[in-house]
Specification:
This protein is an alpha/beta fold. 37% of the residues lie in helices and 15% in strands. It has two domains: 3-301, Metal-dependent hydrolases (TIM Barrel, Alpha-Beta Barrel); 304-344, no CATH class. The chain has helices at residues 13-25, 28-44, 61-69, 86-91, 132-144, 156-167, 187-196, 205-210, 216-226, 232-237, 255-263, 274-281, 283-288, and strands spanning 49-54, 76-81, 96-102, 148-153, 178-181, 199-202, 242-244, 306-309, 324-329, 332-336. A five-stranded parallel sheet has the order 3-4-5-6-7. Strand 5 (178-181), helix 7 and strand 6 (199-202) form a beta-alpha-beta unit. Helix 6 runs parallel beside helix 7 (187-196) and helix 11 (255-263) packs antiparallel against helix 12 (274-281). The chain is globular and about 55 Å long.
């Protein structure tokens, strides 16, 4: 396939091919430079562990680069290889596969697979990127190989396809299989997700950016459906385990901003407490990655990763104004705000 024949808007297969080519053309030296910049931004944001979703189109170039670089940082990096090459993942000794393997697209591009047409494009309901046979075969093989799986699903049709695929595997809660984003979820699928022991990984900053009145969600879905996106509290009430992420660089690497967004959801019924929101980026995030014995809380035997904040975040009135003053990993300071005032 020649990218010169691609349409003006790069998406789907064309996007994967473009990213594969870029991954090969960017030198390891430049990747290392970018890695160091990412490390600085993570420390400044109070991040001590990252779930890094790398690779595309069964290409391991960036995955192998990150495997080499992850030993050169105090950051805890959990690598999710975004490939469908199970053998390649197992050969590298990795316990998980997926990340943002795309089941559908996005609401912004109207490629998320939804059950009713877009409000601003009546003839379009998005599309599923994989047919059932291909997806379910891959899921079964990855599951049999003992791998934790993770997939990108934004629209309710995409979430439903994953639920149907996971249901063929039975309840395997100990593997903590994931659904990334889950922006629109049918009520029956919420119940199925709870029954299967699946984890949902929400990005609270999504509704901060696009969930306000007149925002992208309302434009694409109309007011009624836009009130049913990112249903964090619904998942919590149904006993569905969840964690939070940023989907950086779609939204900034900013857990504090995500905490504030989860507490101040545009739909008040979907707001959660500050305590629960903090857990979404700490304890629950460690559990979804099987690292709760090492990370996620300050407890005997764990790594002593913590941050010092400018205000008491558990006082709700402070949640939007709090800032990171210092970041510690394994008890060692890796960032102090006072040392970086000139770059703020």
């Amino acid at each position: 396939y020649d990218l010169r024949d691609a349409s003006p808007v790069i998406r789907g297969k064309e996007y994967d091919l473009m990213m594969k080519r870029l991954g090969k053309e960017i030198s390891f030296k430049d990747k290392k430079k970018g890695f160091r910049e990412m490390e600085k931004r993570a420390f400044k944001a109070g991040v001590t562990a990252l779930h890094s979703m790398e690779g595309c189109e069964n290409d391991f170039t960036n995955i192998d680069a990150l495997l080499e670089l992850q030993d050169q940082t105090p950051l805890e990096i959990l690598l999710y290889p975004q490939v469908m090459d199970i053998r390649g993942v197992l050969e590298r000794g990795l316990p998980r596969i997926g990340g943002c393997i795309l089941i559908d697209g996005s609401l912004g591009s109207r490629t998320a697979a939804i059950s009713s047409p877009y409000a601003d494009a009546p003839g379009n309901s998005g599309r599923l990127y994989l047919d059932d046979e291909t997806l379910f075969f891959f899921m079964r093989k990855a599951h049999e190989a003992g791998l934790q799986m993770s997939f990108h699903a934004i629209g309710d049709r995409a979430v439903n396809q994953l639920v149907r695929g996971y249901s063929l595997l039975g309840r395997e809660a100990e593997k903590r299989h994931r659904v990334e984003h889950a922006i629109l979820v049918d009520e029956m699928d919420f119940d199925a997700i709870a029954g299967l022991g699946l984890w949902l990984d929400f990005q609270p900053m999504f509704h901060e950016f696009w969930g306000k009145p007149g925002g992208l969600y309302e434009q694409r879905l109309g007011k009624q459906r836009a009130s049913l996106v990112n249903r964090i509290n619904t998942a919590r009430q149904k006993g569905i385990p969840f964690a939070f992420g940023s989907d950086c660089n779609v939204t900034p690497l900013d857990p504090l901003g995500g905490i504030a967004a989860a507490v101040h959801h545009p739909c008040p019924d979907e707001s959660i407490s500050v305590e629960e929101a903090v857990c979404g980026f700490t304890l629950y995030a460690s559990r979804i990655g099987h690292t709760e014995n090492l990370l996620g809380s300050i407890s005997p035997g764990k790594k002593a990763d913590f941050v010092i904040l400018s205000e008491n975040i558990f006082d709700k009135k402070n949640v939007r104004g709090v800032a990171v003053q210092a970041t510690y990993i394994a008890g060692e300071c890796v960032y102090r705000a006072e040392d970086h005032k000139e770059s703020v």
